[in-house]
Amino acid sequence: MQHFTLKSFCLALGVSAAMVGTDATAQDQAPTISDIIEAWLASPHGDRTSEAFTHWNEDGEIPGVCAVCHSSTGAIDYVSGPMTTPGVIDHAVGLGTTVDCVVCHNKSAAALASVPFPSGVVVDAFGSSAICTVCHQGRASSQTVETKTAGLEDDEVVGDLGFINVHYKPSASTMMGGVARGGFEYPGKTYKGQFTHVPDLNTCTDCHSPHSLQVSLETCTTCHKGAESFASIRISPADFDGDGDTSEGIAGPIAELHARLGTAIQAYANEVIKVPVAYSDHAYPYFFADTDMDGIAGSGEAIYPNRYQSWTPRLLKAAYNYQLVAKETAIYTHNPHYALQLLYDSLENLSEKVAVDMDGIVRP
Ligand SMILES: [Ca+2]
Ligand SMILES: [Ca+2]
Ligand SMILES: [Ca+2]
What we know:
Elements: H1 6-13, H2 33-41, H3 51-54, H4 64-70, H5 72-79, H6 101-104, H7 107-111, E1 115-116, E2 122-123, H8 130-135, H9 142-149, H10 171-176, H11 204-207, H12 218-221, H13 251-273, E3 277-279, E4 287-289, H14 313-327, H15 331-334, H16 336-350
Antiparallel strand pairs: 1-2, 3-4
The structure holds calcium ion (3 copies).
The site of one calcium ion (CA) has 8 residues, from loops.
């Protein structure tokens, strides 16, 4: 990283030395500027080598549809402009930045109160964490899927349907649940809105350190006594996955219903579409033709030319939700009941056409 004097650094950020604990009279517990820089450098936001910041190196520039979330320049251009299309600016930007200090420490970010989401809904619930929601909102929503499938028969294979991918870690969308509509929401169902939790732990930086990005388990165990990991936290009394265990972490039934949805998706593709499908969590676009019918996307199958191309609206909706829960690996803590509702409804919808084991499972 470049060399700054401490004074120029603090001036550039608009913070005084006393605020950051470099002053001799400042309190001991305040992080020093070098603590902050170190924490940030060790975090994914400061990782220059990451795929999230190097993916465009061969192209020479980052297009406007990617730049808002994958570069400092794009993020700042976006929040200081009209934010007309969620997550998109109208120009490409240069390579070489990450989520640098200036992304969050600039006037527009500081003044940012409301942020448009992919569904078109504008959310103003995050206070000084609003800037986080610009990038951690995903790139698609219930609305995207509804628009693509409008007027089509549920079980008709439509040649120009392709998989719709929500994109990585849309934590702000899941936290806002049925307000932001980041999952595909089945008509006639009601969905959990914002996961409001407790007053002091509602925004991103209430839980995450803004620089290391880490969450400390001690923040949780004052109330969630005895929890040994985030995933083992449990409050809800209902046995959502029907296995008789109501003390397992809320992540347990989410994982169980997610696995059942994977099975149901494959059963539907086999029996109704009659073109088997297999999922790969790392190869774009994630759903592939299972040509050898072993249930797995093998290395020869998980390639773009073999992408699944026999989508029906019903399959697309279930697959969209399957991918959302797969890619938002912390959905169990950002909005567990929203996740369970999306999974339950996807299973129930597929059960109209194929045998799905709904025994004992409960919708929150
Ligand atoms: Ca259970
Ligand atoms: Ca279980
Ligand atoms: Ca296979």
